[in-house]
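Appendix B, Record 12. Input sequence as logged:
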Amino acid sequence: MIQSIVGRMGSVVLIVTVLAALQVSYAAASDDADLVELVKAGTLARSQSITTFKGTVMVSTWSLTADGKESSVEKTITAVADHKKFRLSAEGTKGSDLKYDASFDGAKLTEWMKGKGFDPPVRIYEGLTGGLAHSDFSLFLNPLSVGNQDLSNISFTVEGRETFNGDECFVLTSTKAVGASATTCKTWVNTQKGFTVAKYETTATTTDTGSVLSKQVVTNEMRQHGEDVWGPLKHTVTVYKEDGSKTTEMIATYSEFQYNIPISADELKLTLPSGTEVYDSTLDATYTVP
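Logged structural output:
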């Protein structure tokens, strides 16, 4: 089975080989079961194709408050990542004085907020359980969130094929009902760009009448980096209310990104200056860096 082969992969070179084989299998797929297996294997291989990266992303967020006021902010994030470890630096460039440095060593996240109003300025979190850096990495930088999603453990049906932004995509659907509401997910998988996720929509409805409660639409414009490695060029998240009006739009634009390159330990390290106050949530203790 294709999926079992992918599950045993241990190198980017082998992943590229399997993805090439999946393109041939795509042409030969004859029924829905074949297509489901093909998509699961393809997205699993895609999710394992990036191990390290570095680059800069500019995030622009527009939102509409409950009282009808518009807000617009921008920030720039510089990132370095090696498997499950990363280092981020962020700075507000419009409508925000946000500025932080952060580092995740695979077990703890250290976040140093720079500016007024943060006492103490440094917080340490167990795993990825809190902090702005956790949110920024999860939303805009984790490859599994921006086009390289793994769909191998998700139950879905293949609705058909559609052209999106000039490329043919598989259209997948899944629905989950909980209590008085149901959530329907619709996903466009781009087979012409290595089984990357080009778009997905999440719609919450009432189970009795089917009335829309909310809707989120995510689109990914992907760019090729070397042989069969795809990273985001633009990532857009748009949130709508039940009446179809837009409440939030986040646009992330990526530049100078490099993938699967050597990353040194120094690039991931965050050094705190002597005298800095730190709150360590794993110890529930505050101390000063000597």
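Residues 52-59+66-142+263-288 form one domain.
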